[in-house]
């Protein structure tokens, strides 16, 4: 019997050492098989249960890991290491309170384990108790003056309230611990927050050198690439981070967002689905997945994802806004309006919401004008300073509001990025027609309301120079890229003409629709030459604000003004300016040269 016990002990030791070797070599499945073989003969061996728990932890099976650690603790309830490992699995599973409780039990049993206090500090930081978190990091550093990780966490904790101190402390640590990757990782983050991009690149490179298998550092490098619009390089870093840690949310999200913008919807969707498996109630993941589905034209699926995002965070304006746009496209105007007003209530300064409210009300007015007028009036009462509310309420009642500069500036700032794409889909013909009627103009031309430069590009020849004038700086920024303007000026059209008269021609393509009365405009050009387009009105009034929010003009009114102000050889040409809701918008281009 004695020999048999000796043989069994030798067999256990051999199996255990073999399992440990496999475990340390990263051969987790093989190690697990041997650990379970040992448990068949010694079912409650706590060290084996603990090691099996570590295998499960490494595989991401945190529930199983917790069960195994708790079984080990039943046998040996005074083991600090088991409590530490249990706490760590709770932390990885997002159960922060349980993690904190078990880390504290580990510290109570063995108050000399510095890593325990470091982890307690990290958890307290996540739970919003920064003062106690710092006490734990300070204590960890007292236990071991060379414990750079705790010191780095302490320094980084000041990033939110005193980022200059965080930077100074981390730079001091970097000098004292030049081989500590965590310090350089945090320094990179601080440099990025402060816009110190060159320093951030250097620090990230050092962090990568010190921690070549760190997925977190790869994410930082990807973010730096994104800042410099090096998206192909960013994808490489994100992909490496994903390979190193398939559960890295930042890597999965970064890749998904880039693929979505590029139109690679299959690759984007794989990652959005994985993100939602890992965090099914994450607002950002639902919202970004919804945007991808919307870009892919899968509107019914996008609707569901936007609705999920709104349920998770009803106070977030963007998903309500985007959901409203899909519903508007489906003709569900009233539901769309409700969502837009909800979005506006939570983010009053987001002008895109006001633009969409205005457009949706105009569409709804074609279906139910009295109700649309009532909603617009209530909007204006609730937000009396909102330029879009003022303009929309007036347009739906047909009330002239004059040259509403703030409305025009904000509207075109909003549309600048995709203006040319939008007008192309509407069959926008104004630049082409104005360029043909103008012919080869010589001298100095003022392009009023130049927008993104479509008219300027149609007029430019080697024999003229063009000055672009527009209220929207964002439009001017796009126009500058065409390189057809000698000068670009941010100004209202009338204000510019009052201050400047050193030109030969004024062209005003699609400007009259945002001014109304043209008397002063044309009077300001009376000694020069003009080409101007207007939308045609069939009403008795000289001009009227239409339901679409733009002014229409009677051709007789415009021609009378031109003749009264000394223009001769007046020519005009009718044409279709664009299409709205499948219907043509009729316009006229007038060309008038001055008698002098």
A few lines on this structure:
Helix content is 64%, strand content 10%.
Give a description of the structure.
This protein has 596 residues and is an alpha/beta fold. Helices cover 64% and strands 10% of the residues. It contains 31 helices and nine strands. It has a seven-stranded mixed sheet with strand order 3-2-1-4-5-9-8, sandwiched between helices. Strands 6-7 form a two-stranded antiparallel ribbon. The longest helix has 23 residues, at 2-24. The radius of gyration is 34 Å and the shape is elongated. It starts with a helix and ends with a strand. Mean pLDDT is 89; it is low at 1-10.
Provide keyphrases for this structure.
596 residues; alpha/beta; two-stranded antiparallel sheet; 31 helices
């Amino acid at each position: 019997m004695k020999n048999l016990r000796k043989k069994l002990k030798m067999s256990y030791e051999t199996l255990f050492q073999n399992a440990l070797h496999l475990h340390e070599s990263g051969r987790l499945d093989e190690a697990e098989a041997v650990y379970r073989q040992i448990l068949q003969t010694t079912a409650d061996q706590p060290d084996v249960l603990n090691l099996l728990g570590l295998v499960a932890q490494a595989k991401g099976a945190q529930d199983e890991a917790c069960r195994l650690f708790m079984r080990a603790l039943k046998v040996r309830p005074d083991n600090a290491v088991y409590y530490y490992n249990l706490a760590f699995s709770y932390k990885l599973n997002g159960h922060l309170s349980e993690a904190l409780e078990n880390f504290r039990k580990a510290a109570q049993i063995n108050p000399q384990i510095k890593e325990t206090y470091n982890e307690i500090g990290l958890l307290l930081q996540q739970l919003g108790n920064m003062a106690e978190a710092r006490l734990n990091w300070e204590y960890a550093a007292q236990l071991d003056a060379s414990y750079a990780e705790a010191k780095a966490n302490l320094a980084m904790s000041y990033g939110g309230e005193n980022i200059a101190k965080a930077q100074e402390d981390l730079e001091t640590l970097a000098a004292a611990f030049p081989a500590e990757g965590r310090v350089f990782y945090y320094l990179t983050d601080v440099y990025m927050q402060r816009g110190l991009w060159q320093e951030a690149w250097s620090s990230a490179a050092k962090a990568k050198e010190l921690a070549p298998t760190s997925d977190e550092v790869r994410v930082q490098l990807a973010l730096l690439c994104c800042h410099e619009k090096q998206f192909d390089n960013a994808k490489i870093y994100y992909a490496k981070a994903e390979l190193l840690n398939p559960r890295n949310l930042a890597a999965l999200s970064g890749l998904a967002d880039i693929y979505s913008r590029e139109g690679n919807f299959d690759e984007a969707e794989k990652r959005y689905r994985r993100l939602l498996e890992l965090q099914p109630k994450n607002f950002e993941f639902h919202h970004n997945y919804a945007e991808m589905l919307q870009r892919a034209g899968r509107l019914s699926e996008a609707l569901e994802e936007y609705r999920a995002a709104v349920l998770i965070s009803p106070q977030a304006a963007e998903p309500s806004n985007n959901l409203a746009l899909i519903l508007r496209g489906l003709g569900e105007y009233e539901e769309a309006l409700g969502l837009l007003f909800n979005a506006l209530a939570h983010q009053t300064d987001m002008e895109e919401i006001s633009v969409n409210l205005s457009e949706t009300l105009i569409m709804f007015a074609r279906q139910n004008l009295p109700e649309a007028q009532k909603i617009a009036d209530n909007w204006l009462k609730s937000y009396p300073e909102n330029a879009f509310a003022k303009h929309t309420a007036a347009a739906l009642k047909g009330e002239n509001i004059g040259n509403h500069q703030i409305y025009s500036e904000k509207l075109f700032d909003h549309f600048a990025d995709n203006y040319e794409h939008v007008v192309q889909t509407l069959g926008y013909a104004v630049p082409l027609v104005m360029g043909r009627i103008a012919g080869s103009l010589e001298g100095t031309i003022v392009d009023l309301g130049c927008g993104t430069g479509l008219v300027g590009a149609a007029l430019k020849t080697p024999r003229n120079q063009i000055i672009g004038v527009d209220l929207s700086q964002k439009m001017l920024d796009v126009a500058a890229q065409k390189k057809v303007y000698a000068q670009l000026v941010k100004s209202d059209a009338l204000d510019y003409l009052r201050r400047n008269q050193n030109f030969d021609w004024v062209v005003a393509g699609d400007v009259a629709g945002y001014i109304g009365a043209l008397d002063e405009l044309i009077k300001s050009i009376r000694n020069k030459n003009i080409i101007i387009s207007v939308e045609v009105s069939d009403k008795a009034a000289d001009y009227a604000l239409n339901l679409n929010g733009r002014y229409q003009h009677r051709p007789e009114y415009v021609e009378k003004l031109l003749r009264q102000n000394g223009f001769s050889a007046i020519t005009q040409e009718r044409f279709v300016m664009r299409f709205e809701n499948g219907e043509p918008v009729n316009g006229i281009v007038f060309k008038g040269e001055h008698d002098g």
